[in-house]
Each structure stands twice: as structure tokens, then as C-alpha cells.
Specification:
- With 212 residues, this protein is an all-alpha fold.
- It is 81% helix and 0% strand.
- The protein is built from nine helices and no strands.
- α4 runs parallel beside α7 and α5 packs across α6.
Length: 212
Amino acid sequence: MSETAGNEQPRRRQARGERRIAQLLQAAAQVFCTTGYTAASTNAIAREAGVSPGTLYQFFPNKEAIAIELGDRLMHEMRETYGEALAPVDPATPLEEAIGSAVDRFMAFNTEHPVFFALMHGPDLPGGITEAHDQLHATLIGRVEGLLASLLPQAPPADLTRTAHVCLGIYKAGLELVLAHEGAERAAYVQEIKNVLVRYLDPLVGDRLGRA
């Protein structure tokens, strides 16, 4: 047997394994969204994936390991999303445009991956996810501060941090309402979140620019 042929088998097995892992993670996402993490079980995840529990255990020892792997992948994608969404903007950019662009990118991620909200905000989450969430939150606050600094270049750092926390709190509170609705009603809630953020930030931006 040639070396090339010998290498093909492990690669094919690895590709099948990756597909199976992706299948199980997709099933877990559905189960976590439907029942929440605490009530979910490996049997329910295996059933949703259309495989036996034994097949699931070939890849994950328990639901905590599944949740951590799913959370890790979502965290990675989320970091890419907020890197694009929260880049500093030209100070001349209209506030509505800057806020609208950031909110749209975040909403696109959260509505495409509703399990992210379920994992990040549910009770009794695995320690690995909790630690990763804390790191993500701290980094996210830092990026929001960077975006705000481009809009409020004279603001003291403490003010930027406080304002960033309020903005993120408004977004998270609104996100729960957005995920509970669909279609036109969901779009209306997204617009309401943008309106609230603009009305909160507009006086601050106006003060810094010396507007009346």
C-alpha cells in the first residue's frame, strides 16, 4: 500500500468524525434552546441527532462537554462578529448609522444562533462556559469603549466604561424580547433597541460636540 493510500483512511475517518460532531452540536443547540441546559439530557440530544446514545458517548462523555464545545465554537464566531461590529468609526459618522450598524451585526449573530443566549444566560452552566463568558464580557466592554471613544473623544475613561456597561445592558435586555418574536414584530423590537441606544447616547455626543 502506498503512503498516500495509507494516509487517506485516517483523513476520511477524521472527516466523518468532524461531521458527526457537527451533527451532535447542532442537535444539542436545538435541545438547549427548547428545554434549557439544566433540563437537557444526552439521550435527548442523541435522539434529536438521530443517533444512539452510544454513538454520542464516542465523542462526548456528558452534556457538559457538549455545552463547552458548543460554547467554544460560538465564542470564537462571536469574537469575529464583534470585531467587525465594534470597530471605531469616523467621528463624523451619524450616530444612528454607527449604532444601527453595530446592532444589526450583533442581532444577525444572535438570531442565527439563539442557543448562544440560552447558554450564556441560563442557570447552572458549566464552569468552562461561565469563565469564557466572563472573558468575553470583559473584552466586549473594551470594544464598546473603543467604539464610544471614537464618538466621544474627550470623555474620561471612567465615563466611557460606565456608558459601555449601560449600552450592553440595554442590548441584552432587548435581545430577550427580540428572540421571543419573529418576522415584522422582531424587526420592530430591533428598531426599538436602536432607538433607545440613540436616545441615550445622543445627548452625550451632543454635549461633547458642543451642540445646544
